[in-house]
Amino acid sequence: MTLKIISAVEIVYEGTVSRVTLPGTMGAFTVLRNHASLVSTLTEGDVSFINADGAEETRHISGGLADVDNNVVSVCVY
Prior knowledge:
Elements: E1 2-6, E2 11-24, E3 27-32, E4 38-42, E5 45-51, E6 56-61, E7 64-69, E8 72-77
């Protein structure tokens, strides 16, 4: 699946991932391939993911919105 982390000024990350864990307002949640579509608000915390090489990466965000649809996870951050 594809992960896009986007701010108002730059693309923070864009690439193929196998798993994404996001800091949802109601608690952290994990998205895997073929996840149901959803939209969620995000709080300050870490977005962690497994990249195409199998390595875990983390990006800290101040909050934002996540949209999951058709194996694309779009994260718009503040």
